[in-house]
User: What shape does this take?
Amino acid sequence: MTTPQATDTSRLARRRFLQKLGLLSAATVSSGYTLIEVSAKAQAADDSQPTAQAVTAKKRWGLLIDTSKCSSGCDACVRGCNAEHGIDSSGDDTTRAQWIRKVDLEDNLTGKESSVPVMCQHCDSAPCVDVCPTGASFKRADGIVLVNKHTCIGCRYCMMACPYKARSFIHEVLTDQKPSAPRGKGTVESCTLCVHRIDRGETEANLQPACAVACTDEAHSAILFGDLNDPQSPIRTKIDEIGATQVRADLALNTGVRYHGL
Assistant: This one.
């Protein structure tokens, strides 16, 4: 029978072992802080929020993006996401974090042009989850694909596996982070569908992620968020009305992000 003291000793030994390998360095987010501490601050800051709902498979959170309403010259969704999560939009494109980016497309046959926001597609069968050696990439019961920064070792297998190029690697030490979006040098990150808003237990009317709010504020209303499992939800009603497709539907990933007008 294992005693509590033996268990604590084992955990300490494992932690020291991982520290020697450098596998715990990714947990540092800024000088003097760890992801655990930042998360704890976020929880303390949310004490005034309603009680969060349990995460279950009854809901499948997703996005509907109407490309017919999306302007090629508009990057409000990108700016909204960056502001919400404390992402610096300056710097080299090769190292700058991008949770959402605008991609301009042209149909070779018809010449039709579209401007498409691309982010993590929150796949039901997520390739990033399949290749992650530590389980850091995972999919919640409600369909949101996330990265556990405490177990991410920065191998970047998930970045190579993602057919949407939707993940970024953090190269630099970060400061002035948002408590609701802890990030860490040496780890991978991507769109979270603003999961912190969902986990605060807010009403669905206020659950729109930052990208959707910014798009609406620009009077485009091209991004709609909601429960794909609920046939009565606004997002499902809209999909039934105007139709929607998946990017790379041939991969059979059953994405949580759908597009109209491609």
In short: The first helix runs from residue 4 to 21. The helical segments are 4-21, 35-45, 76-85, 127-131, 157-161, 195-199, 210-217, 234-242.
